[in-house]
Amino acid sequence: MFLNVLILFIYLHILQKLFHINDPTGSRKKNFVRALAARFRQLKSRLVDRFITKKSAPPPGNPNANKKPWQVYDGYITEEQWKLFEAYVESDEFKVINNLINIAIIDI
């Protein structure tokens, strides 16, 4: 968790320097962090759906159909990172948190 937050703020700092963004109120920072967090959650969800639960596997004729995640996302995900992610997604802690989130979404 701490590492994810640290990465978000590093990205924000780099983008502020690259594009000379002045944000005295912090509203742009807040919107940036929200958008980046949403994209990160979407990526994690796609990874789980495709490679772990196999809900959205590509068709058999697709050139990436039989590749491992670290092969499809070469340079972004290593095999070690994938193994850690997969172990976390299959853990009891993740399942409890995921069930609580799903219950909260249904109640909304």
Describe the structure.
The protein has 108 residues and is mostly helical. The protein has two domains: 1-57, no CATH class; 67-108, no CATH class. Helices cover 69% and strands 0% of the residues. The chain is built from five helices and no strands. It has helices at residues 2-19, 27-52, 69-72, 79-89, 92-107. The longest helix is centred in the middle third of the chain and has 26 residues, at 27-52. It is globular, with a radius of gyration of 17 Å. The chain starts with a helix and ends with a helix. The mean pLDDT is 81.
Q: Provide the structure class.
A: mainly alpha
The N- and C-terminal alpha carbons lie at a distance of 26 Å
Strand content: under 5%
Number of separate structural domains: 2
Any key phrases for this structure?
single chain, 108 residues, mainly alpha, 2 domains, globular
Task: Provide a short characterization of the protein structure.
This protein has 2 domains: 1-57, no CATH class; 67-108, no CATH class.
Secondary-structure map:
Elements: H1 2-19, H2 27-52, H3 69-72, H4 79-89, H5 92-107
